[in-house]
Design brief:
This protein is an alpha/beta fold and 345 residues long. It folds into three domains: 69 residues, Arc Repressor Mutant, subunit A (Orthogonal Bundle); 64 residues, no CATH class; 171 residues, 2-Layer Sandwich (Nucleotidyltransferase, domain 5), CATH 3.30.420.10. 42% of the residues lie in helices and 12% in strands. It has 14 helices and eight strands.
């Protein structure tokens, strides 16, 4: 049995076959059966592509030409197609706003449009949805390309096969972490990681991500050592304030630079959990935000090239990104809500 077609429009090849068989005297039904089309489709196409010609003796003759059928089909399509909304006058201001937010502030399409809708910056008639704007990018109807979008274009290296080895966990295993922490139901539970630069001995970025709000703290440290991690954490605690309230647990990997992290359990009453070796997915918030950092600081780039001010700007950019998961509120806004609860308690 011939497979049913999943598309409707005739191709140039099919029009050529129609001309050939119709010239031989085949019926609409016979042509349709051969091409897997209905007789009515063949009839409509032949009527569309039939042209009157004057032969010798001024005799009129009607003949089907596939080129004529294709041309009239295209003209009919143009006549029925509506203009793109991005070309309409009422949408120009909104399109320019989205372009500016992407190109200047490096925000995501969905974040920009969702936030604009939430704050009612534009009327519904002026706006287009996220899917539509992405289609405009693909069709090059706007001044944005895929390369301009965070996380849209990623250069992927071939994955190396890692053979797990038995690695000692320095403190309490993540397996003992409470379920309310795993479910992100409670505030004050953090993930910690390092973003390294060009070489292992280069300066690095100490990152701390709150699991519920995705709030990010980034501190530049001189090298990948226990002592530098301790100093970096002290600076973060000082910046954050309310240490006893908002830092309840920290989840880390098993890197040697975090081997003394469990000492926080005594010095600051912060419970520390260690993830399984080679299980970055257990610190998903870290990994997601690290991807955003890498958009601004590519791999194999020396951290020394970036000033504290530039690092601070990257941190602010991450924390001010509208997030769909929060109804297009930012991590900063979610964090302030949670902190205010502790302050008013």
């Amino acid at each position: 049995m011939k497979k049913k077609r999943t598309f409707k429009h005739l191709s140039s090849f099919e029009r050529g076959r129609i001309a050939e068989m119709y010239e031989r005297g085949s019926s609409y039904y016979a042509i349709g059966k051969k091409l897997g089309r209905s007789a009515s489709t063949i009839r409509a196409e032949i009527q569309r592509g039939t042209v009157k010609q004057i032969k010798k003796g001024y005799k009129e003759v009607e003949r089907y030409f596939p080129e004529a059928g294709q041309y009239r089909y295209e003209q009919n399509r143009k006549a029925c197609m509506q203009p793109y909304r991005c070309d309409r006058k009422e949408c120009k201001k909104f399109i320019a706003y989205v372009e500016r937010e992407i190109l200047e502030k490096k925000q995501s399409v969905d974040g920009i449009i969702g936030r604009a809708k939430k704050l009612k910056l534009f009327s519904p008639e002026e706006m287009v949805c996220t899917t539509t704007f992405y289609s405009y990018i693909e069709k090059q109807l706007v001044h944005v390309r895929n390369i301009d979008l965070p996380l849209r274009v990623r250069y992927r290296r071939k994955k190396q096969v890692v053979i797990p080895t038995q690695k000692r966990i320095f403190g309490t295993s993540i397996e003992k972490r409470p379920e309310e922490v795993n479910l992100r139901a409670d505030f004050g539970h953090w993930e910690i990681d390092l973003v390294i630069g060009k070489i292992e001995k280069d300066e690095a970025l100490l990152v701390l991500t709150e699991r519920k709000t995705r709030k990010e703290f980034i501190e530049k440290i001189k090298r990948k050592t226990n002592e530098e991690v301790r100093k970096g954490l002290s600076r973060i605690f000082k910046r954050a304030g309310h240490v006893e309230s908002i830092f309840q647990t920290i989840t880390s990997d098993n890197g040697s630079e975090f081997s003394r992290l469990h000492e926080l359990e005594k010095s600051r009453s912060i419970q520390v959990y260690y993830a399984h070796p080679y299980a970055a997915y257990e610190r998903g918030s870290n990994e997601r935000n690290n991807g955003l950092i890498r958009y601004r600081i590519p791999k194999h780039t020396s951290i020394k090239r970036y000033s504290k001010k530039q690092i601070s700007e990257i941190e602010e950019w991450i924390n001010k990104k509208p997030r769909r998961i929060f109804g297009y509120l930012t991590a900063d806004e979610m964090f302030e809500k949670e902190v205010s609860r502790f302050s008013s308690a």
